[in-house]
Design a protein that fits this description.
Blueprint: H1 3-23, E1 25-27, H2 28-38, H3 47-59, E2 63-70, E3 73-80, H4 82-106
Antiparallel strand pairs: 1-3, 2-3
Length: about 110
């Protein structure tokens, strides 16, 4: 697993919440493709990582699902619940603060 994959794994739930906050509803494959497109292929979410994360968020009451038949195939769409919206705002803010602090640490000049 490369470093991008490890970082992605730790922030996957936040990424899912953020995408659903902006898109309202998405299905699994659509989420993987959106992440790949937004990161110019630098980050890829595997189905093996995505679906357990989606199921965990659903079990936490943050997502709701709706199955719809599209072109003869059942497609499961995920949407944020009311709690999911407020949790998305909270987790996105927390991750943003952590990234700012990490950036500060990474740009420290060595002591002379």
């Amino acid at each position: 697993m490369n470093s991008n994959q490890q970082l992605l794994k730790g922030s996957l739930s936040v990424i899912i919440l953020k995408l659903l906050e902006e898109q309202e509803r998405m299905y699994g494959y659509e989420i993987t493709q959106k992440v790949k497109a937004l990161t110019a292929g630098q980050m890829a979410i595997t189905e093996g990582a995505l679906y357990p994360a989606l199921h965990k968020l659903e079990a936490e009451g943050l997502l709701t699902t709706e199955t719809q038949v599209v072109e003869g195939r059942a497609r499961k769409y995920y949407s944020l619940t009311k709690d999911g919206h407020s949790e998305a705002v909270s987790r996105i803010s927390e991750l943003g603060i952590m990234l700012e602090n990490l950036q500060r640490l990474l740009t420290l000049k060595p002591a002379i």
